[in-house]
């Protein structure tokens, strides 16, 4: 049996931009991606702490050390710059493997920098 489990989480980052006219996705600072064990094109769920919205999209790499968290395309309607969000990815794995797996969770500063 396989189950989906938490793989990675970027906990409480600040949305820096919302670009309705860009092709859909979320742009994330590459330093945050590396620290969270996430990669470009990976499917993620974004949970908006300010309004409760939940969005599924995929990652685009943002410029290193920029602090960028930008919701693009239709997802831009679900956030405002300044909103706090949690970005989560999941992995499919064997049930026994999942019991031992430890997800990567990071807690950036309010300016989206690594501590």
Please describe the biggest sheet, giving its number of strands, its sense, and whether it closes into a barrel: 8 strands, mixed
Strand-residue proportion: over 45%
Overall mean pLDDT: 97
Pattern of helices and strands: EEEHEEEEHE
**CA distance, first residue to last residue:** 38 Å
CATH class: Mainly Beta
Give Rg in angstroms: 14 Å
**Share of helix among residues?**
10-25%
CATH architecture: Beta Barrel
**Global structural class:** mainly beta
How many structural domains in the coordinates? 1
How many runs of DSSP E, i.e. beta strands? 8
- Work out the helix count: 2
CATH fold-level assignment? Barwin-like endoglucanases
Q: Report low-confidence residues grouped into runs of 5 or more.
A: none
Task: Give the spatial strand order of the biggest sheet.
Answer: 2-6-3-5-4-7-1-8
Q: What sort of overall outline do the alpha carbons produce when their principal axes are compared? A: globular
